[in-house]
Amino acid sequence: QVRLVESGGGLVQPGGSLRLSCAASGSIVSINVMGWYRQAPGKQRELVAAITSGGSTNYADSVKGRFTISRDNAKNTVYLQMNSLKPEDTAVYYCNADMVVAGRTTGYLEVWGQGTLVTVSS
Fold first, then answer.
1. What sign results for the dihedral spanned by CA atoms 37, 32, 2, 108?
2. Residues 74-98: pLDDT tens digits?
3. Residue 26 has what DSSP assignment?
């Protein structure tokens, strides 16, 4: 079965950096958009950054200039480089991907990772 596996979350001080990784595995034919979402306590899940298979990106206003999303199509992996982290960046970060999966003809399959906790605190 297809899945997304995330890594890189943890505790970091304000102003520090973290790099999140998310690798897709399984019977994947292709992946369209990959992205990162986050959800803080008491708030709805929000899009942080997204990237298409061709490399086009978009970011939430709150992270522009600080975060960079990238992907390695050969490895089916998406990354989120987070710099100048702030306490308000604290959240569970989720990886998301739209995939064409072997044996399916109904369009893209939406797949979510299990989430990884990022805590920004001194």
1. positive
2. 999 999 999 999 999 999 999 999 9
3. S
